[in-house]
From TrEMBL:
This is Probable CtpA-like serine protease. One of its GO terms (molecular function) is endopeptidase activity. The lineage of its organism: Bacteria, Pseudomonadati, Bacteroidota, Bacteroidia, Bacteroidales. Its EC number is 3.4.21.-. The keyword Cell membrane does not apply. Keywords: Hydrolase, Protease, Serine protease.
Length: 552
């Protein structure tokens, strides 16, 4: 099993270091073990307070591993559910994300469509009071999470408080095996353009994508496809190879992995099956949150000139991890290699070894290397996947960030849902001006306060101007600028009405129609998808993008 910086592969030769390396490091290794063991022993025997050795060792292990890179992790026995969710997209429980409020109460945050919590009638915003008769009013999120999980089929009793209601509610239902579907949504865009959005590369990803693709081809007659992997953080490498295989012939190299010299030699991953369609025009959508296996799919299809890539530069995770078994049912997910896509490039953005040495860890564009696709188009390494067509993204106003972190949006939507049994379909829904005005009144009632980076920069400018002797001369100008930059809720609610309304619409739709509804709403005005459809509707333009430019 292989993760691509998020990808997991079988751990084979990586455990067998060469004799020379083993002998060179043997003394330091033994010395480190002795020192660490001695420190733990002395703390256990001599520290003034009683210390949990298990907790202390976990802290030490995780601090040590985090100094290597963000992807090497230790999973204790009780953490293996987290690893299972990462690799298989499944766990046993009620099927809801939970979160902790500023008042320390733990709430139902996002019930998942079709899962026990949603089917039982639990809603986002419900405050968890008791689980199976035990009081959890003052518990932490991990404590509540552990109590919610259990064997599939076992009964759970939840006592909750729903905001706006006087009486608490009791829910009794059964836990289940929760399987998270990696395909968020698929449909047609217009008459003959297919669209598939998927969010992860669990061990079911290729099967789910294949089911969607075959349905679109066989039952909807699509002639081209948009494969949306924006915000897809990756997962299993094998799933990425299988998805590429849908569009390229059997026996084509998709990627290779190189580990530490003398420890893991080059391993090649090629397509193993007959493809589904090698000629259908394909557009892949990516963004800055597309990572690891998502980058393998986008990069391989780009390198093989099999798809046009649209969107924004991807994250740049070119590392793979392997799971190794540890004593007491623990697991070490450790970075064991770098992956290379068909052109030969590695798209890893950060050099963590240089970062550990205090050197510049991100390679500047001027020092990246040029590679070429199968057809001769130039592509670059060391910074993620650069799209063939870049779409400028609209940035959200700062005021929305503060509304979100202060739970103002969440509270408004919870109240809205509790007062509206149904809403229109995602494509037709929007809050009214009256709803928007109520949201503004809610913010004022809560004494909503927010800061902006521009105000902080202005304060710094005033300090510098005073030091340099220009403050008196520029005083009036700076005061006028300060008045313009000072947070003004009514003014900013008018200025950013479109962006705030859109954000509220999306959040409300997610409560009623879940992730698929949010995607349906997004597609109404999504610039990336619109550009993809435009390219797919113009065969000559599509072909020209995949054709190398002639040198003059």
């Amino acid at each position: 099993m292989v993760f691509a910086a998020g990808c997991i592969l079988p751990a084979m030769a990586q455990n067998k270091a060469t004799d020379s390396l083993r002998h060179a490091n043997q003394f330091n290794y033994i010395q480190a073990l002795e020192v660490m063991g001695s420190i733990l022993g002395n703390v256990e025997q001599n520290f003034v307070d009683t210390v949990s050795m298990e907790r202390l060792s976990k802290i030490g292990i995780r601090a040590m591993l985090s100094s290597l890179d963000p992807y090497t992790e230790y999973f204790a026995r009780e953490d293996n559910d987290q690893l299972k969710l990462l690799t298989k997209g499944e766990y046993a429980g009620i099927g809801s994300i939970i979160s902790q409020r500023p008042d320390s109460s733990v709430i139902i945050n996002s019930p998942m469509q079709g899962q026990p919590a949603a089917e039982a009638g639990l809603r986002a915003g419900d405050v968890i009071l008791e689980i199976d008769g035990r009081d959890f009013r003052k518990s932490t999120t991990p404590e509540v999470s552990a109590a919610l999980k259990g064997l599939p089929g076992t009964t759970i009793k939840l006592k909750i408080h729903r905001p706006g209601e006087k009486k608490d509610r009791m829910f009794t239902f059964k836990r289940a095996k929760i399987v998270v579907d990696p395909v968020t949504y698929y449909s047609t865009l217009g008459e003959d353009v297919g669209y598939i959005r998927f969010s992860s590369f669990t061990d079911q990803a290729s099967r789910k994508v294949e089911t969607a693709l075959r349905d679109l081809k066989d039952n909807h007659g699509i002639k081209s496809l948009v494969l949306d992997m924006r915000s897809n953080g990756g997962g299993l490498v094998g799933e990425a190879v299988r998805i590429v295989n849908f569009f390229v012939p059997k026996g084509r190299e998709v990627m290779s992995i190189k580990g530490r010299p003398g420890v893991q030699e080059r391993t090649t991953y090629s397509t193993q099956n007959e493809p589904i369609d090698t000629t259908m025009p394909v557009v892949v959508l990516i963004d800055g949150h597309s990572a690891s296996s998502a980058e393998i799919v986008a990069g391989a299809l780009q390198d093989l000139d099999r798809a046009v890539v649209i969107g924004n530069q991807s994250y740049g995770k070119g590392l793979v991890q392997s799971p190794l078994n540890l004593p007491y049912n623990g697991t070490l997910k450790i970075t064991t290699g770098r992956y290379y896509i068909p052109s030969g490039r590695c798209i890893q953005r950060i050099d963590y070894q240089k970062a550990r040495e205090g050197k510049t860890a991100v390679l500047p564009d001027s020092l990246t290397h040029e590679f070429h696709t199968a057809g001769g188009r130039p592509v670059k390494d060391a910074g993620g996947i650069l799209p063939d067509i870049t779409i400028k993204q609209d940035s959200l106003p700062t005021i929305l960030f503060y509304m979100d972190i202060n739970n103002d949006v969440f509270d408004f939507i919870t109240d809205y849902v509790n007062n509206h049994d149904t809403i229109a379909e995602p494509e037709q829904f929007s809050i009214t001006d009256a709803d928007y005005a109520r949201f503004e009144q809610l913010l004022k009632a809560k004494k909503f306060d927010y800061d902006r980076q521009s105000s902080k920069v202005l304060e710094k400018l005033k300090e510098v101007a005073e030091v340099e002797g220009y403050l008196e001369r520029a005083g009036n100008t700076l005061k006028e600028l300060e008045a313009q930059l000072k947070p003004d809720l009514s003014r900013d609610m008018k200025t950013f009405k479109k962006e705030i309304t859109d954000y509220l619409n999306n959040a409300i739709i997610s409560r009623y129609y879940y992730q698929s509804g949010a995607v349906r709403y997004m597609l109404k005005s999504d610039k990336d998808t619109a550009k993809a459809v435009e390219i797919l509707k113009n065969p000559e333009q599509y072909k020209s993008i995949l054709t190398p430019k002639k040198q003059s």
